[in-house]
Amino acid sequence: MKFTVHVLADRCKECGICVSVCPKGVLSMSDNMNRYGYRYPIIVKPSECIGCKNCEYHCPDFAIFVQKVD
Ligand code: SF4
Ligand code: SF4
After folding, report:
1. Within 13 A of 47's CA, how many CA atoms are on the CB side?
2. Residue-averaged pLDDT of the chain
3. Is the pLDDT of residue 1 over 90?
4. How much is the pLDDT for 12?
5. DSSP per-residue letters across 10-48
6. Looking at the whole model, is its pTM more than 0.85?
7. Domain locations in the chain?
8. How far is CA 56 from the centre of its chain?
9. Is the beta carbon of 63 within 6 A of some atom in ligand 1?
């Protein structure tokens, strides 16, 4: 099973929670800024995602979600 992680950059507030709750190191904060001046995470190890949705469940701003792909 494969998963794709989507980051809605302009909703992100740079809290870093998603990065810290991911058990597989899939995410990392980037130096890219969204339109409000917050840095947002990027997916650095896409193939490692196990679809646990920890990132999605813990993001306070609904800025990240996980999709199962065939
Ligand atoms: S679904 Fe789980 S493994 Fe995948 S990026 Fe989110 S926290 Fe990490
Ligand atoms: S948990 Fe949400 S708001 Fe916080 S850094 Fe991750 S995507 Fe951004």
Report:
1. 0
2. 97
3. no
4. 98
5. GG-----HHHHH-TT--EEEEEEE-TTS-EEEEES-GGG
6. yes
7. 2-69
8. 7
9. no
Find out whether the beta carbon of 52 lies less than 6 Å from any atom of ligand 1: yes
Whole-number Å distance between alpha carbons of 69 and 40: 23
**Do 39 and 33 contact (CB within 8 A), yes or no?**
yes
Q: So what's the pLDDT on residue 28? A: 98
Q: Which CATH class is domain 2-69?
A: alpha beta
Give me 57's structure tokens: 């469940």
CA 39 to ligand 2 center in whole angstroms = 9
Mean pLDDT of 45-55: 97
* Atom in ligand 1 nearest the alpha carbon of residue 21: 7
Q: Which amino acid is at 42?
A: I
